[in-house]
Design brief:
By secondary structure, this protein is mostly helical. It has helices spanning about 5-30, 45-60, 65-95, 100-110, 115-130, and strands at about 30-35, 40. A hairpin with a 4-residue loop joins strand 1 and strand 2 (about 40).
């Protein structure tokens, strides 16, 4: 890495940081194996936090990213939010099939602000897709 200029190094490190949060979110959504347990695990609260971290990076880096970096980050956030909405919307059906108690069902249907925002984002993306065949 001695021969790499500072901007190239920072770009490389930025992509690595984004990949770290992206991979964490995919694992937390149950879309990738957890390499430590070698199991598929879901943790929507942590997935939401990982996505929020990427959103924060997007907001805080406005005007400082190359076109490619901005496009890459926007795509990651979009993909993760759409998958988050998809996985969260599947969850109540899966829990009912597993015989969840009424109290557990009630606590899991309470949506946080982040979940509502991600669902709205998903609806917006679907509307855009429907408008542009």
């Amino acid at each position: 890495m001695e021969n790499i200029d500072k901007n190239s190094l920072h770009s490389f490190l930025f992509y690595q940081l984004l990949n770290t949060f992206q991979n964490a979110a995919w694992q937390q959504l149950g879309k990738q194996l957890n390499p430590l347990t070698n199991m598929i695990e879901k943790d929507f609260a942590q997935a939401s936090l990982s996505i929020s971290m990427l959103d924060m990076l997007f907001e805080k880096t406005q005007g400082n990213l190359s076109v490619e970096e901005k496009r890459f980050l926007e795509q990651i956030i979009s993909d993760l939010k759409l998958n988050y909405v998809e996985e969260v919307s599947k969850e109540p059906t899966e829990q009912k099939e597993a015989g969840e108690s009424d109290q557990e069902k009630e606590s899991n249907t309470t949506e946080t602000k982040d979940v509502k925002e991600m669902k709205d984002f998903g609806k917006e993306q679907n509307a855009k897709t429907d408008d542009n065949p």
